[in-house]
Amino acid sequence: MSEEMKISNVHFFFKIFFTILFTSHGSQIDDVPSPNNGVAFFVFGDSLLDPGNNNFINTTEDFRANFTPYGETFFNSPTGRFSDGRLIPDFIAEYANLPLIPAYLDPHNNLYIHGVNFASGGGGALVETHQGFAINIETQLRYFKKVERSLRKKLGDARASSLLSDSVYMFSIGGNDYIVAFEGSPVLEKYTEIEYVNMVIGNVTSVLQVSSNLIIFPPQFHLISSFNSVLIAN
Q: Can you tell me whether residue 10 is helix, strand or coil?
């Protein structure tokens, strides 16, 4: 591969981040089952999906959205969402006749029957991305394991397994890992641009591999990339 092609690939990957939506039993995105079928919605990622988890961690205002004008057009007050209203998971939940999926770190949230949202504004696929200021994807997956144990304790193994296997899982991760490249991240002092891009891609791949062990994913899944809004369904 020529040097020009390598640089072109770097610039391409610096622009892209991934949102991955997994559904069970090969169902289509517009066929989200009703809550009467025991469906829950679990969300992982960054500020595109964060419903307010960063309200409950020791971080700076740069990584929070709990002040105006956030939230003013729908909630009439800031909720921690990086939006003046709702986020993509809120619309999906509404379509599926689910309540708004709460932030995992919200102290008032301990049921998890309808799902939970682990996303954190500023979070990345790399542990080093905004380390100490946001919740990385590996930590979010550890939180999910705690939720799984809680559900098995409350519902029993059979009901919990059924709920988890019939649920919807949404991931949005990777964008912040590239953004920090322009924020003077010390990690980039150790690696070339190509090496860094490969690290991010490798971590996203690892996250999906780990997720497949934690979550009972179906053989069919949907991949939505925010870059050009491309939908790929296998």
A: helix
pLDDT single digits (tens) 66-108: 999 999 999 999 999 999 999 999 999 999 999 999 999 999 9
- Tokens for 24, please give them: 């069970």
| Cβ atoms of residues 145 and 214 within 8 Å | yes
* Structural domain boundaries enclosing 122: 3-233
Work out whether strand 222-225 and strand 18-22 pair parallel, antiparallel, or are unpaired.
Answer: antiparallel
Token pair, residue 186, equals 């010390």
How many domains are there within the chain? 1
Query: What's the pTM?
Result: 0.79
To the nearest 10°, the Cα dihedral for 123, 42, 219, 157?
A: 130
Find the distance separating the first CA and the last CA of the chain, reported in whole Å. Answer: 29
- DSSP strand pairing (168-173 vs 18-22): antiparallel
Q: Flag whether pLDDT at 110 surpasses 90.
A: no
